[in-house]
Amino acid sequence: MDRMLYVAMSGAKQAMEQQASVANNMANVSTPGFRAQINAFRAVPVVGEASPTRAFVAATTPGADFRQGPVTDTGRELDVAVRGDGWLVVQTPTGEAYTRVGNLQVASDGQVTTMGGRPVVGDGGGLVIPPGSSVTIAADGSITAHAPGDPLTGLNIVGRMKLVNPPVADLERGEDGLFRMRQGLPPAEADPAVTVTAGAIEGSNVNPVEAMVAMIANGRSFEMQMKSIQSADLNAQSANKLLAYG
């Protein structure tokens, strides 16, 4: 009976954790540049002095869904969408991180940042826009600024956004939702083949219908595991009665 309890108990626990992951995907259906989490189950033998006849169920997150999300034209001069594979680079307290979130803004100090306030990294460091300037972003990520009263020729080139395209197997998602190189790997180098579309933004690649179906499936899986626990308890009670009156 205890073997049945092991599987059902750990299965119910992991079904709840997977439900939380799917719920997080569902909550980010409208988050620009969001990458859906991919989950799976695996069996983990219980290690001990006794015979290896017990196993737990563990949920794993092997990675993320790196398919491109839908691109929407916005006409906003600071919106960019990465074409195909590739990432924008932002600066965090722990170093460089990678994102597909392209709704950028200019901070009070003129620095180009994400809506979350993280500075966007350029090929030569930070990117700073002169106050009151209109901005144009080229396909290669180059940013030019035109201040009021300046001639149309000789535009001020602010810099070029650092665009990278490391192997997805080398990336891992952090708790802040940003991707980083795995432990021990150096930061990704700029890739000139990565381009962007200005005046557009990439949406989340979460399919709301698939996420809803997954939530229902996880709920039913949890109910099935709980019924298995109840069945194991009833079987144990019946066995105790047979032993008591046998």
Kindly describe this structure.
With 246 residues, the chain is of the alpha+beta class. It has 2 domains: 2-64 and 219-245, no CATH class; 71-202, no CATH class. Helix content is 26%, strand content 30%. α1 packs antiparallel against α2. The protein starts with a helix and ends with a helix.
Task: Write a brief structural summary.
Residues 5-35 form the Flagellar basal body rod protein N-terminal domain. This protein is of the alpha+beta class and 246 residues long.
Number of domains: 2
Instruction: List low-confidence stretches.
Output: none
The biggest beta sheet reads: 3 strands, antiparallel
CA(first)-CA(last) distance: 19 Å
Estimated share of beta-strand residues: 25-35%
Mean pLDDT: 85
Strand order of the largest sheet: 6-5-14
Return the structural class.
Answer: alpha+beta
Number of helices: 2
**Secondary-structure element order, N to C:** HEEEEEEEEEEEEEEEEEEH
Tell me the total number of β-strands: 18
Helix content: 25-40%
**Radius of gyration using CA atoms only:** 25 Å
Bulk shape: elongated
Structural descriptors:
246 residues, alpha+beta, 2 domains, three-stranded antiparallel β-sheet, 2 helices, 30% strand, elongated, FlgE/F/G-like, bacterial flagellum, LlgE_F_G-like_D1, cell projection, Flagellar_FlgE/F/G
